[in-house]
Design goal:
Helices cover 54% and strands 9% of the residues. With 176 residues, the protein is mainly alpha-helical. It has a domain at 8-82: Orthogonal Bundle (Arc Repressor Mutant, subunit A). It has a 3-stranded antiparallel beta sheet. The protein is elongated and about 80 Å long. Belongs to the SWI5/SAE3 family. Pfam families: Swi5 (PF07061).
Length: 176
């Protein structure tokens, strides 16, 4: 009988791999989308819990009012990679599989790119602080946009016309 701790599930391996190689925190719904197999996505919550418990992932829940929250997961860079995603070499009589060689080259290129991108960040760069600040800016933007919508609505009401016509009057697109 194999010990489950020594044999991570496919969902655990895939979740760790995606978050280890993704440049920003991901929500559970984004991870569900990444797993097209129902068998894997069914184990996703358990896999996320396991990876948070063992320190591989960092979980952060953001509150947007009393009933709205968003849970993000990111790879813990301070913990060494637990999943070796390099396939074991299997010598064949014909030589290495060209597709496998191409994939290994792509992995090597992506790792070099990741290292180069990570080196552009300051060592004290904090993703959580950046995400929190970005969310605050989005809230501020939405508040300003809501005020603008109310003003355009009041102008339309005073002019006895529609909001759509006011957009045209002010030279705005409908998706502004």
């Amino acid at each position: 009988m194999t010990d489950r701790a020594l044999q991570p599930t496919i969902a655990t391996q895939l979740t760790a791999h995606i978050l280890n190689h993704h440049p920003r925190p991901l929500s559970e719904s984004e991870l569900n989308t990444a797993f097209s197999s129902p068998a894997i996505s069914a184990d996703l919550s358990e896999a996320l819990k396991e990876l948070v418990d063992n320190g591989t992932l960092i979980k952060k829940t953001l509150q947007f009012g009393p009933d709205n929250e968003l849970t993000l997961f990111r790879y813990n860079e301070k913990r060494p990679t637990i999943i070796d995603d390099t396939p074991p070499s299997q010598p064949t009589q014909e030589g290495p599989d060209p597709e496998l060689t191409l994939l290994r080259d792509q992995v090597e290129t992506l790792r070099a790119e990741q290292t180069q991108l990570l080196s552009t960040f300051d060592s004290d760069f904090d993703v959580d602080t950046y995400v929190d600040a970005h969310i605050k800016r989005l809230h501020h933007y939405n508040e300003i946009k809501d005020v603008g919508q109310m003003i355009i609505g009041k102008c339309a009401e005073q002019e006895g016309t529609t909001t759509r016509e006011m957009y045209t009057t002010f030279g705005l697109e409908e998706d502004d």
